[in-house]
Automatic annotation (TrEMBL):
GO cellular component, one term: cytosol
GO BP term (any one): tRNA wobble position uridine thiolation
PANTHER family linked: CYTOPLASMIC TRNA 2-THIOLATION PROTEIN 2 (PTHR20882)
Function according to Swiss-Prot or TrEMBL: Plays a central role in 2-thiolation of mcm(5)S(2)U at tRNA wobble positions of tRNA(Lys), tRNA(Glu) and tRNA(Gln). May act by forming a heterodimer with NCS6 that ligates sulfur from thiocarboxylated URM1 onto the uridine of tRNAs at wobble position. Prior mcm(5) tRNA modification by the elongator complex is required for 2-thiolation. May also be involved in protein urmylation.
Pathway: tRNA modification; 5-methoxycarbonylmethyl-2-thiouridine-tRNA biosynthesis
Name used for this protein in its record: Cytoplasmic tRNA 2-thiolation protein 2
One annotated GO molecular function: tRNA binding
UniProt-listed Pfam families: CTU2
Chain spans, region Disordered: 53-78
Keywords on record: Cytoplasm, tRNA processing
Cross-referenced SUPFAM superfamilies: Adenine nucleotide alpha hydrolases-like (SSF52402)
Comp. bias regions, Polar residues: 53-65
Family: Belongs to the CTU2/NCS2 family.
Length: 487
């Protein structure tokens, strides 16, 4: 695309023209404007949520459209002031989160004191989660990286921005559990290491470590911690930096891991989350949900890299957004990442094709707005997965058993010659009723299909954070109520 702008002075004239997928060729100035425009379109729902307290895609037919959130202003009378949302940005230091931080500056300009227009948001909180490693990352190295991120955030020129760094092991710090508050940071770190890095002899299968399931567990813990932190900091919006390539990877990865039932969340630009207490009190009508959004999910990785080059930005950890796994451990996540990256290089429309196809599926996600319009909020009819929070399909644990060879009951030759009526009552897949009863009392009934392998990958389920057990008990009580009603 031609324009009247002169060639950038910092580009070598001998360098070949840069082409961008589905966008044509741009000079530096026009490309920057193009990317900001793309970002604003993807993030308009976040601004609308901040302004009104409700989401743009609430169906008008549901009768649940909300009025803008207001508070009574000073001086009495009927004068009201608009209430804006605080935003929490989960920053890993990778390409996506760095680009998102730079783009967010447009919403936090230095305002004139005489300006009467309310700001887009009430404030920005940047949270970096320190990913505890197997042997513990050296304190000096981790502290240096954290300080680097803090300096970077403070140098952005965003007024009243707050930077917070927390370890992933804080997932074990639960205010509702008195014992967890008395634990030291070292004890929580040791619990995390024991959970995410078991030895083969500790796992139920006593075979090689299932790094794929452990990687899924770590990602679930990360997002649970970010959502918890957002509520603690009174932030109504949580934004993360997954770009188009990363969302495409999550889509294929999710399908491979059995998360097709919740694929809407895997590729969603935004969805709303309520904790259990909010759903029971129906506080959604007051606009107290947490909006989780991916404002840069419409931007390709190649476009992000060019934006970094044009703006001369520094990306602290360029590879962290690619789902790379250290120590050469083979996981489905790593294989999918390499597959999508290589395919995108050869066929540049791969990512858009994957996203366009999956968005048409319209499968059920964890979006609280959908449950509100279906009349499920405030009742006991919906329970999310105890680990990842995603929707749990009825009978998922039985289906997993039905297709798992290791769960088949071995029969002797004598029983094979008898008639079906003489054989001990079993299911069609050879699992005895006692096993089903045992499974019903375990964690399996509280998990989605994609998380069912996690309990087998860890040493023992008691190592999981306390909220997992609370969710299991809650679902168990709900099942007991349903059984009692049916009887």
């Amino acid at each position: 695309m031609s324009c009247s702008q002169p060639d950038p002075l910092d580009v070598d004239e001998t360098e070949p023209e840069r082409a961008f997928i589905a966008a044509g060729s741009y000079c530096s100035t026009c490309f920057e404007a193009y990317l900001y425009s793309k970002f604003k379109r993807s993030a308009e729902g976040v601004r609308y949520f901040s302004r009104t307290g409700t989401s743009m895609d609430h169906s008008p037919l549901s009768g649940r459209q909300l009025q803008p959130r207001r508070e009574v202003g000073g001086g009495g009378g009927d004068r009201h002031i608009h209430v804006r949302s605080r935003v929490l940005l989960g920053m890993s230091g990778g390409l996506g989160s760095r680009v998102l931080l730079e783009l967010l500056k447009v919403w936090f300009p230095i305002r004139e004191t005489s300006s009467k227009a309310p700001p887009a948001f009430a404030g920005l909180v940047v949270v970096h989660v320190e990913m505890d490693t197997e042997h513990g990352q050296p304190d000096q190295e981790q502290n240096a990286f954290t300080e680097h991120l803090k300096t970077l955030v403070e140098s952005m020129g965003i007024k009243d921005v707050e930077f917070i760094s927390i370890p992933l092991s804080d997932i074990f710090k639960d205010s509702s559990t008195p014992d967890s508050t008395s634990e030291t940071a070292l004890e929580r770190h040791q619990k995390l290491v024991q959970l995410l890095h078991p030895t083969p002899s500790q796992t139920p299968s006593k075979t090689k470590i299932d790094h794929t399931s452990l990687a899924s567990l770590q990602r679930s813990l990360l997002f649970t911690l970010l959502r918890r932190k957002a509520r603690k900091e009174k932030c109504e919006v949580l934004v993360t930096g997954e770009g188009s390539d990363r969302v495409a990877e999550l889509t294929i990865e999710g399908m491979a891991l059995g998360r097709g039932y919740s694929i809407g969340e895997e590729v969603g630009v935004e969805w709303e989350v309520l904790d259990r207490q909010q759903e029971q009190k129906q506080e959604q009508a007051k606009g107290n949900g947490l909006l989780v959004a991916r404002p840069v999910s419409g931007i390709l990785r190649a476009e992000m890299e060019e934006f970094v080059r044009v703006k001369r930005l520094v990306v602290p950890r360029p590879g962290v957004d690619r789902g790379e796994v250290a120590n050469g451990r083979s996981t489905i996540q790593a294989v999918v990442t390499k597959f999508v990256t290589d395919l995108q290089k050869e066929f540049p429309s791969t990512v858009q094709t994957v996203l366009a196809t999956v968005h048409k599926l319209g499968m059920r996600s964890t979006d609280a707005r959908m449950r509100i319009e279906e009349g499920e909020t405030g009742s006991e009819s919906w329970e999310g997965c105890a680990i990842c929070g995603g929707p749990v399909q009825e009978g998922a644990h039985r289906w997993r058993k039905a297709i798992t060879m290791s769960d088949l009951v071995e029969t002797d030759h004598a029983s094979a010659t008898r008639s079906i009526e003489d054989v001990e009552p079993q299911t069609v897949i050879g699992i005895s009723e006692s096993k089903y009863e045992e499974s019903a009392n375990s964690l399996d009934t509280s998990l989605c299909y994609g998380c069912l392998l996690i309990p087998k990958a860890i040493a023992k389920t008691e190592d999981l954070p306390s909220y997992v057990e609370r969710q299991r008990r809650s679902r168990r009580r709900m099942d007991d109520v349903v059984k009692e009603f049916l009887i």
